[in-house]
Each structure stands twice: as structure tokens, then as C-alpha cells.
Hints:
Elements: E1 3-15, H1 23-29, E2 37-51, H2 53-60, H3 69-72, H4 79-83
Antiparallel strand pairs: 1-2
Amino acid sequence: MAKxxxxxxxxxxxxxxxxxxxxxxxxxxxxxxAPDKVEFIGELVYSIETINxxxxxxxxxxxxxxxxxxxxxxxxxxxxxxxxxxxxxxYYDQ
Length: 94
């Protein structure tokens, strides 16, 4: 049995209603809100290719169900960064 990599693209129509005084302002604002209407148009297969076992093991095989290959190369987070807080200003120091 062969392994295939199938690349697809989805076409989704989104309608936004933005309050603005000009087209430029409307274009700047529309991404800051959720779309008012979403419609799935279709899915397009744009490439299909066969891969061998070596390529599958190297690029596509899941290493761990909880950790993907892109997370393994990042390394563990620095715990000090997670707990560093800015000093709290006293009310009277303002």
C-alpha cells in the first residue's frame, strides 16, 4: 500500500458589515469583528504526491499524540519568564 500526501484548499465566503465613513476605514475595521455570514463554497485538491516510508517517518509520522514535531524542536519554556511580574506601584507613588 502506498502513502499519498494530498494538499487541498477550502473556499469560504465571509460577509462582514462594518460601520465606517469611507471604504478605507471599513477595510481597516472589518477584521476586528466576527463575520455576519459564513458560507462554505467548496474544497479544491491542488496536488497529490506519493511518499515512501522514509519520508513518512521523517516528515509526517506523529511522534506522540500530545506533542507534534513542531513543538518538539522548540524546547521546554523557560519557567522564569512565566512567573516574572512587574513590581506593583504603590497608590501613593503615582
